[in-house]
Design goal:
By secondary structure, the chain is of the alpha/beta class. It has two domains: 207 residues, 3-Layer(aba) Sandwich (D-Maltodextrin-Binding Protein, domain 2); 99 residues, Periplasmic binding protein-like II (D-Maltodextrin-Binding Protein, domain 2). It is built from 14 helices and ten strands. The longest helix is centred in the N-terminal third of the chain and has 20 residues.
Length: 317
């Protein structure tokens, strides 16, 4: 099934490349603004994009950015490849998995690096007999998507603690539904990111068991902005302008956390008082290619990919 899906995506991409190939790169007139659709997951991580729109960084590059929310990074990849979206934001594990299947993608800007505290956390029920990370062996853990960043991060963190991950079952549960799934004992534990991790903690029905990212290498890259190779070839100038504006947005967001918190309620369902306390990720213009290679190695170890992709090609921009 996985091979068939990859074949369909590749066919869509080849069709898009054929359609674009005859016209050459699209360069808008100096006075015109180019509209680009950007697929994003509704999480704290994409705040710099919205902040950059508000601050006019994209307008300065003669771009009109239209964010479109999608629940999973893998679905965003499919839409970018098919031409339904111009640019996408996805976790790096999904990007690496797609690249390993021969889907030509190009990372054009960093998304975010892991943050401290409840930015990412594993919870169990308050009355759960699970009291240490070692107790997660053989248990059911909710993640927003299987064979994605959640399972990889949890596996890597647990193995760093000497915990066997062979018998763990990962269950796909949307972030907004995780608290309910945990309360109903549909899973033994949940892995969530902000603002959902903060909300689960605040409800008081769950107990924090582990913050996994601090057990991984520092500045671990979580997600990236990307395009299809066909779009990059046909719209090189648009991509370059997006990268410049996105880099400015990332730098500004890292330096102005208060403004990040103010903009969060404009694109995710979160009260301003909650936004004021969420754990923010780290934003940098560095795509962390070396650590992306580490991610690819872990994805191969855990069987998420059958072959490690060419990271240099993926990050060629």
């Amino acid at each position: 099934m996985r091979r068939a899906a990859a074949a369909l995506i590749l066919a869509a991409l080849l069709g898009a490349a054929t359609a674009c190939g005859s016209s050459g790169p699209s360069v808008p007139p100096a006075s015109a603004a180019t509209t680009v659709s950007v697929g994003v997951v509704p999480v704290v991580d994409v705040a710099p994009l919205y902040l950059g729109i508000k601050k006019g960084f994209f307008t300065s590059q003669k771009l009109t950015v239209v964010p479109r929310q999608v629940q999973q990074g893998s679905a965003i990849i499919t839409q970018v490849v098919s031409g339904g979206l111009d640019i996408g934001f996805s976790n790096n594990v999904s990007l690496i998995a797609a690249a390993s299947r021969g889907i030509p993608l190009r990372i054009v800007a960093a998304g975010n690096q892991a943050g401290p505290g409840l930015y990412s956390a594993i919870f169990v029920r308050k009355d759960s007999p699970i009291t240490t990370p070692r107790d997660l062996a053989g248990k059911r853990i909710a993640v927003n998507a299987v064979e994605s960043v959640g399972p990889l991060v949890v596996n890597a963190a647990l193995q760093s603690r000497g915990v066997s991950v062979a018998g763990i079952s990962y269950v796909a549960v949307p972030f907004p539904n995780m608290a309910s799934a945990l309360a109903r004992s549909q899973v033994d534990a949940v892995w969530a990111v902000e603002p959902f991790s903060g909300a689960i903690s605040a409800q008081g029905d769950a107990r924090l068991l582990l913050e996994p990212y601090p057990l991984l290498p520092k500045n671990f890259p979580v997600a990236s902005y990307f395009v299809s190779a066909a779009y990059r070839s046909a719209h090189a100038d648009v991509v370059s302008r997006f990268t410049r504006a996105m880099n400015e947005s990332l730098t500004y967001a890292q330096a102005h956390p208060a403004e990040v918190r103010q903009i969060l309620p404009t694109f995710i369902k979160i009260a301003p008082r909650v936004a004021a306390t969420v754990a923010l990720p780290r934003w940098s213009t560095d795509i962390e290619a070396g650590l992306l290679a580490t991610t690819a190695s872990l994805a191969t170890r855990y069987g998420f990919v059958s072959a490690t992709p060419n990271i240099s090609q993926l990050t060629r921009g």
